[in-house]
Amino acid sequence: MDTSKNSQHESSILKVSVLTNLLLAIIALYYGFKTGSEAIRLDGYYSFAGFLLALISLWVVNKVMKPETANFNFGYSIIEPLFNLVKGLMILAVVASSFVNAINSLLHGGNTPDFGESITYFLISTISCLVLTILFYRKNKTVPSPIIHVEYKNWFIDTVISASIGVAFVTSYLLQHTNFDSWIKYTDPVVTILIVAMVIKLPVTTIYTGLKEILLSAPGKEIVDKIDDIISEVLSEYDYKNYNFKVTKTGREIYLLIHVQVVNQNTPLYLIKTQDEVRQKTGNALNKLFNHIKIDMVFSENDISYDF
User: Per residue in 148-179, is it b (16+ CB within 10 Å) or e — as a string?
Assistant: First the structure.
């Protein structure tokens, strides 16, 4: 697969995210301060954080695709989970700040924003976010990428936030001049708290995943099983005693270390030529399945086993 072409696709769609996030942040903060709604301001802060992070993502996408250097012998793949970790922490800070403000509003008698203006914002924001969610979902299917995947989740959450604000404010607008109008002032802070409850999983999961990859943890079972199947299939053509492997995933890149125990000096697998052949077959098969994978394959007469 042409990784340089994929990088260009990533950069193109991230530019769309940068511009849209900035535009929606300006609109949300304008309506948020104009109507006095903490929920809309939360959406604005979230979009502005998305703008800054999408801007940095453009640099990250270009950097991780650069080849190894004398100072970075294994490339720049570590930047991707490190960036996602920072991204998760930043979003968590925005959400936590809005949560504190909402609690403070509840303790001081609530807040009644201008529902007419708020509903106008809801329509603009929800439609825009839904379009971007669909766009990023499709792009992530055609050009899989950790950064594009996180962007898709961010736009999905933004859609949920905007839709939730709209539904709550339309309901409050309809409750005016009824027996329930005394509860309307609590709508805004309660909606903000509910939004925080809905979105809190995203930054926490992003932080957890980024930290795991920085610490060189193994990828999910699905990836490990696919690798195991391919190694087993290639080695089935040869006489060997056993094999084991270690694997780690950092951002989009997978590093795989395979140990194969050969039978003895009289078998073809003992020859360097045959070992190179096995490496080539294994590498070709794995590269068809994974876009970014580095492989080391070691052959030995000694039994190599792991405790996991």
Answer: bbbbbbbbbbbbbbbebbbebbeebeebeeee
Mode of pairing for the β-strands spanning 240-250 and 253-262: antiparallel
Which residue type does 200 have? I
The pTM of the full predicted model, rounded to 2 decimals, is 0.72
Mean pLDDT of 209-225: 91
Nearest in space to 98 (alpha carbons), one of 22, 47, 23: 47
Cα–Cα dist 257/296, whole Å: 5
CB 193 within 8 A of CB 102: yes
**Beta carbons of 24 and 48 less than 8 angstroms apart:** no
Determine whether 47 is exposed, middle or buried from the number of CB atoms within 10 Å of its CB (0-12, 13-18, 19+): buried
5-34 pLDDT, tens digit each: 566 667 777 788 888 889 989 998 998 888
Beta bridge partner(s), residue 250: 253
- The SS3 call for residue 43 is helix
CATH entry, 3-214, from 1.20.1510.10, 1.10.3720.10, 3.40.630.30, 3.40.50.880: 1.20.1510.10
* Helical (H) or strand (E) element with 246: strand 240-250
For residue 259, give the 3-state DSSP assignment: strand
Average pLDDT score over residue span 204-213: 91
Span 74-104, pLDDT tens digits: 778 888 888 889 888 988 888 888 888 889 8
In the CATH scheme, what architecture does the domain 221-300 have?
2-Layer Sandwich (3.30)
Alpha helical stretches, state H, 65-145: 79-107, 115-142
Give just the sign of the alpha carbon dihedral 208, 214, 216, 221: positive
* Rounded Cα gap, residues 235 and 252, in angstroms: 26
Whether 54 and 18 have beta carbons less than 8 Å apart is answered as yes
